[in-house]
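Mods, move this if it's the wrong board.
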Amino acid sequence: MMNENTVISENVKRIRDNIAEAAMQSGRAPEDIMLVAASKTKPVEYIQQAILAGVDAVGENRVQEMLEKRSHNAYHGAPLHYIGHLQSNKVSKIVGVCDLVESVSSTALISSIGKKAVSLGITQNCLIEVNVGREPQKSGILPEQLDEVLEFAAITEGVQVLGLMAIPPFFEENVSNCNYFDIMFQLFVDMRAKKYDNVSVRLLSMGMSDSYIDAIKAGSNMVRIGSALFGER
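Not the wrong board. Structure tokens:
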């Protein structure tokens, strides 16, 4: 019987193979796609095995869990992303700790992140989260608010916006999923064509365990994989 470390390594290899095929189908190289291990609830040893197996980064959803694991060197050897819903009272705990904050969903958060980053003498890399499905239970700005948010980021010291993130609605029919991916990719292309200070558009984070292949085909260059990598929670 295979141990958990072997399973994780084999899962990373399988996901990498799928990423490579989807990338080539969309006219890109496999190395153009970043694999982020979504490690919510997973123990330190699983995270370290995923890093050894070659994931590009690790993403956490909960601030306290992230800080606890970090105190045990869980993320040594890989960049750390914050991918969960971010509350303003948690900003001070993650700025300067995470290499990338993927879930920035308001100008208020941009302002708070900028102030904390300036106080630390750093620039915090971020992605703007877009609620592309307009789901009331999800965080993220609406697509039509993107210009306003980017203009605000452009005048906020301490913040560097590197692109967009989304968690589209999931449907059993792939066509519906792909429609949302296509909308996000068009926003990404439009954003990249414009020039803002503090904005350097190169990352489009979308696609999870059940949708990453379609997301890559639609233009994603960063996928967040949890259950397909670590197993069900």
